[in-house]
Amino acid sequence: MDITTCLLMTEGQQECWQTLCHAFTARLAATEIELQKAHADYQQVEAQRQQLAEQLEEAQAQQQALTDAATAQARQFSETLKQLRQNQAQIVQAEKMSSLGQLVAGVAHEINNPVNFISGNLSYAKAYIQDLTKLLALYQKHYPQPTVEIQTEAEAMDIDFLMEDLPSLLASMKMGTERIQKIVLSLRSFSRMDEAEVKEVNIHEGIDSTLMILQNRLKAKSDRPAIEVIKHYSPLPSVECYAGQLNQVFMNLLANAIDALEEGIKITQHSAPSITIWTEVLNSDRIRIRIADNGPGISEQVQQKLFDPFFTTKPVGKGTGLGLSISYQVITDRHKGTLKCSSSLGQGAEFTVEIPVRSQRK
Length: 362
Description:
Oligomer: single chain
Radius of gyration: 47 Å
Structural class: alpha+beta
CATH topology of the domain at 200-362: Heat Shock Protein 90
Order of helices and strands: HHHHEHHEEHEEHHEE
Number of strands: 7
Strand order of the largest sheet: 2-4-5-7-6
Low-confidence stretches: none
Strand content: 5-15%
Number of helices: 9
CATH class of the domain at 200-362: Alpha Beta
CATH superfamily of the domain at 200-362: Histidine kinase-like ATPase, C-terminal domain
C-alpha cells in the first residue's frame, strides 16, 4: 500500500490495517519458529538414520566376518580330516609293508640256507659222479663180458642212457638252484631289511629285483600273450635313498602298468603288450627313471586325480587308491623329487620319476 492510499484512509481503517499487519507478522514469526523446529526434528531424525545405517553396516560386517571365519574353520577342519585319513592310511600301509618286508626277508633267509647247501654240494656230487663214471668205464673196458646177473641189471636200468642223462640232470639241478638264488637275492634286495634306511644303492638292481618278483605276471597267460619288458639303462651313479620305499614305488608303477595292459588286452586284443624302462642322468646330482606302457592310456580327467588318496579306477576289491598316492609322497616328500604322469587315450601312459643322487634327508 502506497503513502497516498494510507493518507486517504480513515482512522478506523488505519487501526484495522495495523491490526492485520501485526497479526500477519506474528503469524510469520510463529511459522518461522515451527519451520526451525521442524528442521531441528529433521536433523535429529537424519542423525538417527545415519547412526542406524552405521550400526547396520557394522552388524553386516560382523556377520560377514563370522561367516568367513566359519567357512575358513570348516575348510581347515575338512583339510585336517582329510590329512588324518591320509596319514592313517599311510600308517596302515607302512605297517603292512613293514610286515611284508619282514616276512619276505624271513622267507628269503629260510630258503637261502638249504638252497646254498644244495648248490654247494652239487659241485662235489658232479665230481663224485664223474669219478664213478670213469671207474664204470674202466670196468666195461677191462671186463667186457660181465656175469649174467650184472648184464641183466645193466639192461634193466638202461645204463647207457643213465650215463648220458646224468650230466644233464646235474646241469638242470644247478640251473634250478641258481634260479632260486636269484629269486632270493631279489626278495632280499626288494625288502632291504638288512640295510640302513638311507643307503647308497644301485637303482638298476632295485628295478630288476622288482621285475623278478613280478615275473609271474609278465608271463604269457591263456587269455593274453607275454608282456615284454624293454630296458634302456644308462650308466647311473649309486643313489642315496630309502631303498625299500623306492622299490615299493617301482612295484606300484610296474604293477599298475601290468594292470593297464591286461585291461587293454580285454578291450583291444593287443598282440604285443610291452613295458619300456629308461634310466638316465639329468645332471651331476639328479637321475630320471621313466616307466611306460603301450596300454589304453589315461584320460585327462583321471590324470588330475591320479595321485589323490583313495582315488582308483579299478573294480571294488582290486585297488585301494593308495598305491600312487603313497608313491607320490615317497618321491616328493621323502626323496625331494618329482613324480609325473603323461598320457593320452589310446597312446599308453608314462610315469617319470626324478630324484637327487644325494639324499637331502639323513
